Hints:
By secondary structure, this protein is an alpha+beta fold. The protein has one domain (2-97, 148-224). The chain is built from 8 helices and 12 strands. The protein has helices at residues 2-9, 26-39, 42-45, 47-50, 90-96, 141-144, 150-164, 203-211, and strands at residues 51-56, 59-66, 69-77, 83-88, 108-115, 120-127, 132-140, 168-170, 179-182, 187-191, 214-217, 220-224. The strands form 2 sheets. Strands 1-2-3-4-5-6-7 form a 7-stranded antiparallel sheet. The protein has a 5-stranded antiparallel sheet with strand order 8-9-10-12-11, sandwiched between helices. The longest helix has 15 residues, at 150-164. The two termini are 21 Å apart. Mean pLDDT is 89; it is low at 1-19.
Amino acid sequence: MRHYIYILTAFFWTTIVGCSGPQFSDKNIEARAINITQMLDTNAINVFTEWSYGTRGQAEIWSKLSFDSSLYTCLYSKNLDTKELFIGQLENFKKDFPYDFLIDTSKYFRAIFSKINDTTIRIITIDNQGQDHILSESIPLKSVFRSNDPFKHFKSLSDFKDSLGIIGTFYRPDIGNFIQFYLSAQHILTYLPDNPKFNSKFKDVWIKEFETGKTIKKNWNLRKLDKPRDDG
Length: 232
């Protein structure tokens, strides 16, 4: 049954496996975990009930959550001269970030918005056959995203994540109302609210899992897996 927990979280371990070295020692991890508990008050932690975070290669994966599913996913690349947002589920994305640009979602199911400079973006779409189509080589950012700039939003999420020093998160309220923060390939910090709720089908599994860790602060459990995750 414990393997079930690994399956649930496997998606977020694409690049976590390589995290090793002195900064990932048990002592340093616990110090970082305590710092996170001090930074995340009730309001701040709610960010991670709305957004899940993982990585794929050099890109950050941010998924907008809705109970047990994802409304849309954004792959955010910030380590480039050109910042990129690779978006799936465009209609849902548009509800949060209205764009004043025609993208025929019957033909294109993904889009890449590339920030060329502070004021200009490029728009590329991907059709159902996986072919790229450049819709605009250069267009003013503010003429497309007039009311809500997604580049600012995902930069803010990314900066917040960096300040915490986390490498992935997990939240599934249909399983339980706890939030997991991955600090290394072995270390997991979990926020358990007062009177935590669990899906009865898996309650005993999760309680046993948390018993392998320790309480480092009220509502916070830090545990170490027996061995690093390796889903490759």
